[in-house]
TrEMBL record:
GO terms for cellular component: cytoplasm. This is Phosphate acyltransferase. GO terms for biological process: fatty acid biosynthetic process; phospholipid biosynthetic process. One of its GO terms (molecular function) is phosphate:acyl-[acyl carrier protein] acyltransferase activity. HAMAP family: PlsX. It comes from Peloplasma aerotolerans. It catalyses: a fatty acyl-[ACP] + phosphate = an acyl phosphate + holo-[ACP]. It is found in: Cytoplasm. The gene is plsX. Catalyzes the reversible formation of acyl-phosphate (acyl-PO(4)) from acyl-[acyl-carrier-protein] (acyl-ACP). This enzyme utilizes acyl-ACP as fatty acyl donor, but not acyl-CoA.
Length: 335
């Protein structure tokens, strides 16, 4: 049985979508047990008894606008997010899922769960939409800005294992986001990273990738520093939202367009679904000694359920042990 700790009070609309998403996950997956941390009084209107659900009460939780998560952690260990993470640290859960503040989750990961000994840094790794509908791993999308090339190589190895074991890509390819496809493009950092990735026997290196190819590329993993990848991710989110608004405007522009849209209703629903973040669930915080999933702050119940699904799949694939074995072996041979 896979054991998952859930922060019941994290998110813009918590606790309703979190509790409902948790119950959806319990109904959908019969091999999970969930421990839900939060204010029972506030969660009560949405809670139902379930044999694989345990609720641990706390009245304390992080506001989404928390500006100093380190201070918050030091001041109060009874915050729902940190209690859920402690559950993982104590070996009582295999993974934690929260829609709470991203930086607080990163702080909790460092102070409570701790980093894997073989991972020098932590990365935020969401799965972004793609033309073929299979999604791609993008990292680091914001945990760090200042990297060394070897840090990106460790991320590439971790992401390759996730792509292979969880996303079922036979030989996942890693692309380095850059301003051009030529080997000589980019900053000194990009050139050094390119050389390191190209020489590695632990990944399948695709080469440089221009951001304009993000949705159409055959590569399975998009890699860069936290600043660049975060801009790519937010540009994608803004473009998808803008496209939807333009499409809606044009449909309403004339009676003929409205009638045409009625005939295309199924196609338009598929279009919306292909760009819908709730289909993905959340982002993996890659590098901690436990599975940590950051669900979207605006998660509704379906999206949060998918965040729990992600956690389940990561644990089921034994991702952390596999990554540790590969990186430890690299260190042993002095690579």
């Amino acid at each position: 049985m896979i054991r998952i700790a859930v922060d019941g009070m994290g998110g813009d609309y918590a606790p309703e979508p979190i509790v409902k998403g948790t119950l959806m996950a319990l109904e959908k997956f019969d091999n999970i047990e969930i421990t839900l941390f939060g204010d029972e009084t506030k969660m009560a209107p949405y809670l139902k008894q379930h044999p694989r659900l345990q609720v641990i009460h706390t009245t304390h939780f992080l506001e989404m606008g928390e500006k100093d998560p380190i201070r918050a952690y030091r001041k109060n260990k009874e915050l729902s997010m940190f209690m859920a993470m402690q559950h993982v640290k104590d070996g009582l859960s295999d993974a934690v899922v929260s829609a709470g503040p991203t930086q607080a989750l990163v702080v909790g990961g460092h102070f409570i769960i701790r980093r894997m000994a073989s991972m020098p840094r932590v990365a935020i790794a969401p799965i972004v939409p793609s033309l073929d509908g299979r999604g791609r791993i993008l990292l680091d999308s914001g945990a760090n800005v200042d990297f060394k090339p070897e840090h990106l190589l460790s991320f590439a190895i971790y992401a390759s294992i996730v792509a292979n074991k969880v996303l079922k890509r036979e030989k996942p390819q890693v692309a380095l986001i850059n301003i051009g496809t030529e080997d000589s493009k980019g900053r000194d950092f990009d050139k050094e990273t390119f050389a390191l990735l190209e020489a590695s026997k632990d990944i399948n290196f695709y080469g440089n990738l221009e951001p304009k190819e993000i949705l159409t590329s055959e590569a399975d993993i998009f890699l860069s520093d936290g600043f660049t990848s975060n801009i790519v991710m937010k540009t994608m989110e803004g473009t998808a939202k803008g496209m939807g608004m333009i499409l809606k405007r044009e449909i309403k522009s004339s009676i003929f367009a409205t009638i045409g849209a009625l005939f295309m209703r199924k196609a338009l629903k598929r279009f919306k679904k292909s760009l819908d973040a709730s289909e993905i669930g959340g982002a993996l915080l890659m590098g901690f000694d436990g599975i940590v999933i950051k669900a979207q702050g605006a998660s509704q119940s379906y999206g949060f359920m998918n965040g729990i699904r992600q956690a389940k799949e990561m644990v089921d694939a034994n991702v952390i042990q596999l990554v540790s074995e590969v990186l430890t072996k690299k260190e042993a041979v002095g690579e």
